Amino acid sequence: KIVFLERATLAPQITLKRPNFAHDYVEYERSGADQVLERLADADIAIINKVQVRAPVLEQLPKLKLIAVAATGTDCVDVAWCREHGVAVSNVRGYSVNTVPEHVFALMLALRRGIVGFRADVLAGEWQRANQFCFFNHPIRDLSGSRLGIVGGGAIGGKVARIAEGFGMEPVFAGRKGATRDVEVPVKPGYVAFDELIETADAFTIHCPLTPETRGLIGLPEFRRMKRSAIVVNTARGGIIAEEDLETALREGLIAGAGIDVTLPEPPAADATIMRIAALPNAIVTPHVAWASDEAQQILADQLIRNIENFVAGNPTNLLG
């Protein structure tokens, strides 16, 4: 029996084929943490995305053999418990190598060229009031010739770097925060010390996981050392940027702008810091959709089912641990 707890985390137009072996299949649009135990009670395979599945629940699911995560991040699962008790955990990899970088540049271009502000001005009648063919209510800056700091050197960070070169930017990867320049930098070509990049980059984009080491990686001390013209983009995980410090940096003009696609928790409360940031003229907040092009979602869905088929066939793929 296969139970998908969160079908609504994939767009309705995405085809989710059924595995090529005999099975019972049940899906729910959404599942709260208090519904997980009941809905997985007789499941052999669970498909989840973000709902939390922890040891107190897992201990009561003796039939469960596989948790197939419909995402790359697996912080929603108690992986250590699963490893210890013989429950396999698989994830989906490599599906977002195009969609996330494209979203990054959509945010960067919109911020650097004042797109959101100009659109609002046009709708408000500013063009007519300007009484000429154009007006200059917002700064307009080229990406070409600027330095892009990339935090995270995986497949997505690498694709961002290649796109940046096409725009005439200088992509540079950040070394580990706190690494001394004389001992650990350059780690390899294209890397510079984290502290140096904070001071010299014109734009930053984050592509690392949320870990104890990366939580609060960029806060007020870093914002105070950035160029006043710098912009920051986070499409990785909420918590890597300290949001209250980001709000301060944007309001005080410590940086020029921010494009944020992730926060903690998701969705945020109506009075959360990220919602105040979203209302600022120098910020763009999107609802964790950088990963979600139709093309990327279909790759994810196909790989998700393939992971399940391979596990049942005895040739598991994308297992953790």
Please describe what this structure looks like:
This protein is of the alpha/beta class. Helices cover 33% and strands 14% of the residues. The protein contains 13 helices and twelve strands. It has helices at 36-39, 55-58, 79-85, 99-112, 115-123, 126-130, 155-166, 181-184, 194-200, 220-225, 243-252, 273-278, 294-312, and strands at residues 2-4, 25-27, 45-48, 66-69, 88-90, 147-151, 170-174, 191-192, 203-206, 231-234, 257-260, 283-285. It has a seven-stranded parallel beta sheet with strand order 8-7-6-9-10-11-12. A five-stranded parallel beta sheet has the order 2-1-3-4-5, with helices on both faces. Helix 4 (99-112) packs across helix 7. It is elongated. The two termini are 24 Å apart. The model is unreliable at 182-186 (pLDDT under 50).
